[in-house]
Amino acid sequence: MRFDPRLIQPDDAPLRNDGELDLPDDLAALAGQLADDAAHLSACYPADRNPQVALAAELADSAERLKRRAWRPSALAVGAGLASLAALVLTVSLSLRDSDPVDAQSVASPDSLATTVSPVAAETMSTSLPALAPTTLSLGELSGPEMEALFDLLQRDPQRTSSIAF
Amino acid sequence: MGLLDLDETARQHFARIHRAALVLCGNPWDADDLAQETFLVLSRQGSSFQGRSSLYTWLYGILLNLDRRQRRRFGMRRRKLRVLWDNQPADVGTTPGADAAAEVSEWKKSLWARVAKLPDGQRQALVLRFSEGLRYEEIAEVLECPLGTVKSRIFHGLAGLRRILEEEGEDARQLPAYPGEDLSHAV
């Protein structure tokens, strides 16, 4: 495309010697018309003579204060809710860890792993291993899915003695 | 700023701020809101006024900032509505959309409705010069730009306005004039 210098407007406006804009007649007429239109509009829709600006400012301030005050209790409630949820999650995870003997065994100390066992003793140990220590689990602390999982485990392993006490 | 000060300032300057807002918005309801909001900003940030310029030029600055923000918000809303509108079947759109601006007929007939199509800088310079009758130095203060830029924006704003009128196929001389009002300050 051929360069068209008319696309670029010169930055400087034409000025008279006294620094005023040197407007051509048509632009001066437009300027006069703009001033006329503004005066006409303002005559049609005059401003309030006694605007209650101070009162409006007071009202706006008090509305903002109320909004801030209304936010405070809800923020506290949300915080308390989050804290109780975190506590619940912590309690459930701790109780699950306590109730799982296999996990407790798997987290044995490195010292116990390092001890050497004689082959005879190991044989006797292996025969006595299935007898797991009885654990007590409070069903009240379990959530629905956790309880469902517990019943699944009990069904899968019917030999394990289980009893429910109220 | 104290309660009495604010009322006194409003009594002195509310009318001129309202007039500028009216020319910018095109309807008296939005103009009222915009002018009130300008003074609310003054009540909150009045302490930051250092007196290096006139109070009314400072108020014009607040007004123009609020207007610019409102236009941006309005433009975004209009674009979102346009997307929804374009997804509607064509025969549903018989009534004007919610984004249709509510301008009074006097404003629509006036040249200020055409000025609204100009870029922000030129539009603001024209409002401050020909509606408010501010001197070039004062306009430069409000718009925070050099004096030469103000003159350039006014000149190119008027030239742009002439171009818009030519495109619309009408002549500025055919527009209704309102004689009898003293407007010697403006030109």
Task: Record the SSE blueprint.
The complex is a heterodimer of chains A (166) and B (187).
Chain A lengths: L24 H20 L8 H47 L1 H6 L3 H5 L4 H10 L15 H13 L10
Chain B lengths: L2 H23 L2 H18 L9 H33 L17 H5 L2 H4 L4 H12 L4 H8 L3 H22 L19
Helix pairs in contact in B: 1-2, 1-3, 1-6, 2-3, 3-7, 6-8, 7-8
Question: What keywords describe this structure?
Answer:
heterodimer, A: 166 residues, mainly alpha, B: 187 residues, Rna Polymerase Sigma Factor, Chain: A, Arc Repressor Mutant, subunit A, 67% helix, globular
The CATH homology group name of the largest domain in chain B: RNA polymerase sigma factor, region 2, helix turn helix motif
What is the CATH topology classification name of the largest domain in chain B?
Answer: Rna Polymerase Sigma Factor, Chain: A
Oligomer: heterodimer
CATH architecture of the largest domain in chain B: Orthogonal Bundle
Name the structural class of chain B. mainly alpha
Number of domains of chain B: 2
Q: What is the first-to-last residue Cα distance of chain A?
A: 91 Å
Helix content estimate of chain A:
55-70%
The main β sheet of chain B shows up as: none
Specify the structural class of chain A: mainly alpha
Give the low-confidence spans of chain B: none
Strand content of chain B: under 5%
Determine Rg of chain A (CA atoms, Å): 43 Å
Strand residue percentage of chain A: under 5%
Q: What is the count of DSSP helices of chain B, taking H or I runs of 4+ residues? A: 8
Low-confidence stretches of chain A: 107-118, 120-129
Order of helices and strands of chain A: HHHHHH
Mean pLDDT of chain A, as a whole number?
Answer: 74
In a nutshell, what does this entry contain?
The complex is a heterodimer of chains A (166) and B (187). Chain A has six helices and no strands.
